[in-house]
Each structure stands twice: as structure tokens, then as C-alpha cells.
Amino acid sequence: MLGHGTTITFDSGFFASILSLQWTGIERAAVPATHFGTTGGKAFQPADLTDAGELVVEIHHDPDEVPPLGSAAETVTITWPEGTPATQSFSGQVIVTGSAAEPSGGTSSGS
């Protein structure tokens, strides 16, 4: 559960309060390394590159401010204010946005 007041900020200036956050986690693929000389089962080795995963964030924002859908990757910062304030910054971009069916608007889900 996220702390009260957790926020997400984009370098472009877009800012929102976070309602929920799901991260798929870091993944490193297993690359097949089997060759004609392999005995027993298939062989695999870890890939050189990792995949940072996908962050899905449900937010509440000012309906007059449009999430930066279609913008280039930028620095995104999540701030957890409770206890000892903590932040996590990374390069990312909004690739999907939707809207909850609420008359007041302002709630979106995206990744």
C-alpha cells in the first residue's frame, strides 16, 4: 500500500497524486546457449541486458493538465513523503492513458 501523499512528477512539469502503483520488476532473459557439443539438457546463459519492466500507475490529477502521452522519454520521479521521505527517479514516458468514468474527471491509469 502506498503512503498518503505519494506523487509522480515528470520533467515536463506534469504532476499527479498516486492512487495505486504496480511494477512488473526487473527481468534478465535466459539466452539459449545449447550447441552440438552440449550433453544432457539445454544450456542457457543470462542475457547481457536487463529489462526494467513496466510501471502501471493510477493517478489523480488536475483535469486541466493533460498527461504527457506521446512525449519523448523524460525523467520521472516518484516521491513517498511518509516517514523518511524517499524518491526514485528513472527515465520513462507515458505510453497508455485512460480515464475513469467519473463526472469530475482527473483520474487516469497509465503505464
What does this 3D model show about the protein?
- With 111 residues, this protein is mostly beta strands.
- It has one domain: Elongation Factor Tu (Ef-tu), domain 3 (Beta Barrel).
- Helix content is 0%, strand content 41%.
- It has no helices and nine strands.
- The chain has strands at residues 7-10, 15-23, 30-32, 44-46, 55-60, 74-80, 86-92, 97-99, 107-110.
- The protein has a seven-stranded antiparallel β-sheet with strand order 7-6-1-2-5-9-8, with no helix packed on it. It has a two-stranded antiparallel sheet with strand order 3-4.
- Strand 1 and strand 2 form a beta hairpin.
- It is elongated and about 65 Å long.
- The relative contact order is 0.27.
Shape: elongated
As for the number of domains, it is 1
Q: How many helical elements? A: 0
CATH fold annotation? Elongation Factor Tu (Ef-tu), domain 3
CATH hierarchy class name:
Mainly Beta
What is the gyration radius calculated from CA atoms? 19 Å
Strand line-up across the major sheet = 7-6-1-2-5-9-8
Strand proportion: 35-45%
Note the main sheet. 7 strands, antiparallel
Q: What is the element string, with H for helices and E for strands?
A: EEEEEEEEE
CATH architectural type: Beta Barrel
Q: Mean of residue pLDDT?
A: 81
Oligomer status: single chain
Helix content: under 10%
Distance between the termini: 18 Å
Structural class: mainly beta
> Based on DSSP secondary structure assignment, what is the total number of beta strands?
9
Name the poorly predicted regions: 101-109
